[in-house]
């Protein structure tokens, strides 16, 4: 029921967290120039908890809401972001309290930095380049979660892709890829930032599957590696094809 989550969850010792049924926020990314990526941040109103810091649009979950529904609703209420303009990619539990209260971060992409409309909970909203996020005064909980939420930049080497995949990649990228152990911002700008990435197909070697289904391919023997570049500096990121195009039919 709308609004029945508004209120405090109280842990032993009296520590309170907003949201009777937990809380959720939206980490929304969008492409910027030259293969880069920006994150939508909210400059919190002075009267709010840790007012004046920067964090994600978000708030209390209602009893009948999934974390995705709550995060997308809050982004609409606080930033004017519409569900039809974004694509949800993943979700992560980023805080847990002794009371059982959780904060779930929902990760989503937009095709471009969308126009925003702040409500009274914001001083301002801003699309911030990902590498500049931690240069701002962040809400403590968001600052603690950020290292596990930020992306590794990777540029897809389309020369290594089957011809049939190239057109579909052009329509799909750039986007966030969830590899389990890390998030990747995958783009196809050959001059853009990040490690070189290639598509890989199952079955995966066991030791690579256990590490989030990603594969780091050594530059040793790689004719594309520059002479004198150490193998560790020329990592190639293997992206499971299913993480880009979905499971095989």
Automatic annotation (TrEMBL):
Pfam family, one: NUDIX
Nudix hydrolase domain span: 19-151
Keyword Hydrolase: yes
Domain of life of the source: Bacteria
GO molecular function: bis(5'-nucleosyl)-tetraphosphatase (asymmetrical) activity
Keywords: Hydrolase
GO biological process, one term: AMP biosynthetic process
PANTHER family in alphabetical order: BIS(5'-NUCLEOSYL)-TETRAPHOSPHATASE [ASYMMETRICAL], DIADENOSINE 5,5-P1,P4-TETRAPHOSPHATE PYROPHOSPHOHYDROLASE MUTT
Name of the protein: NUDIX hydrolase
Natural source organism: Nocardia speluncae
Lineage, opening ranks: Bacteria, Bacillati, Actinomycetota, Actinomycetes, Mycobacteriales
């Amino acid at each position: 029921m709308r609004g029945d989550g508004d209120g405090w969850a109280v842990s032993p010792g009296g520590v309170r967290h907003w949201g009777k049924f937990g809380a959720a926020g939206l980490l929304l990314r969008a492409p910027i120039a030259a293969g880069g990526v920006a994150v939508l941040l909210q400059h919190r109103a002075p009267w709010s908890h840790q007012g004046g810091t920067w964090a994600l649009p978000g708030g209390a979950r209602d009893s009948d809401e999934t974390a995705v529904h709550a995060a997308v609703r809050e982004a609409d209420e606080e930033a004017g972001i519409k569900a039809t303009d974004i694509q949800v990619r993943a979700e992560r539990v980023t805080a847990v309290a002794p009371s059982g209260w959780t904060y779930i971060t929902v990760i989503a992409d937009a095709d471009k930095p969308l126009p925003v409309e702040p409500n009274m909970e914001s001083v301002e909203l801003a699309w911030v380049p990902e590498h500049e996020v931690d240069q701002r005064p962040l809400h403590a909980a968001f600052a603690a979660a950020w290292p596990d939420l930020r992306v590794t930049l990777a540029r897809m080497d389309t020369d290594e892709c089957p011809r049939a995949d190239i057109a579909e990649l052009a329509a799909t990228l750039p986007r966030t890829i969830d590899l389990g152990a890390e998030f990747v911002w995958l783009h196809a700008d050959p001059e853009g930032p990040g490690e070189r990435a290639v598509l890989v197909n199952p079955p995966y070697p066991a030791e690579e599957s256990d590490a989030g289904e990603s594969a780091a391919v050594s530059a040793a023997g790689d004719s594309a590696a520059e002479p004198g570049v150490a193998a560790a500096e020329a990592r190639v990121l293997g992206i499971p094809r299913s993480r880009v195009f979905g499971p095989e039919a």
